[in-house]
Amino acid sequence: MTSAQLQKTSSKESVFGAQPSHRMASTVSAVPRGVFGPSSPHPAVWPPLDFALGALACCTACVFTNPLEVVKTRLQLQGELRARGSYQRHYRGVLQALWVVGRTDGIRGLQKGLSVGLIYQGVMNGVRLGSYSYCEALGITSFHGGSLLSGAGAGALGAFIASPAYLVKTHLQAQTVEAIAVGHQHNHLWLGSNRWLTALIAAMISGVAVAVTMTPFDVISTRLYNQPVDEFRKGRLYHGFSDCMLKVCQAEGLLGLYKGMGPVFVRLAPHTVLSMLFWDLMRDQTVKVNQS
């Protein structure tokens, strides 16, 4: 083989051999880090300020997704402890329920419980995001499995602290006129104003696994929070988690645990995206201000 042929062959190898390896390297480097292994730390933000930024971000997202939360609560309470077909169905799906609530309760009806919902989102997600950020600052997330443990612990802590607000929010979102009422009507008067007149109907195909997995637990928590209580402040309908699950399955069938899955499915993606988007933007802006 002549030297000219060798040069031609090496030239072809550089085009058809080196280029794919370069593409493969760029593809591998594009895989996000920190999902299963150590995560690279975010720019440092003062933990109390990060708490406030996380709370504000999730409250902003809550304004857009609260109408879906109202519909989800109504669908989960509809036909409580009643066999399928033995009760009147006021709500038959996400869009129809949004239309019924808006037509009967007005636009404000779609934002019922927003004021206390903002408190719930602010406390729960402020604690959740702030705690996770604190774990990042301590270096816990730099270890294998650290991100998973930090996220689980921060989420559990936030849900525990914000649980009372979720109870009040559920009561308020269940309240409506008798014509379309479902579940027990507590008729609370909440000192706040629901002046946010905006709603977002999102149609994104995402979060299927989360919706299927978490909806039964969400239904049970809604039933437990909304049930009437006796003079000893104990529930009249359910004695606990397992008792509620058993009674729902016996009276409403297994599908009773999946009431309201439509709004859960539709709400999940936009709320998560908006929360993380607002949080990231505010953190970046805070870092820029601190560096200037």
TrEMBL record:
TM ranges: 196-217
Keyword Acetylation part of the UniProt annotation: no
GO (cellular component) term, any one: mitochondrial inner membrane
Subcellular location: Mitochondrion inner membrane
Solcar repeats: 45-138, 194-285
Record keywords, A-Z: Membrane, Mitochondrion, Mitochondrion inner membrane, Repeat, Transmembrane, Transmembrane helix, Transport
Region of interest (Disordered), residue spans: 1-21
InterPro entries per the UniProt record, alphabetical: MCP_dom_sf, MCP_transmembrane, Mito_Carrier_Antiporter
Membrane topology, record value: Multi-pass membrane protein
Major site of localization recorded for this protein: mitochondrion
Polar residues: bias regions: 1-13
Top-level taxonomic group: Eukaryota
Record family assignment: Belongs to the mitochondrial carrier (TC 2.A.29) family.
PANTHER family assigned: RE38146P (PTHR45928), SOLUTE CARRIER FAMILY 25 MEMBER 34 (PTHR45928:SF3)
Protein name: Solute carrier family 25 member 34
Organism this protein belongs to: Seriola lalandi dorsalis
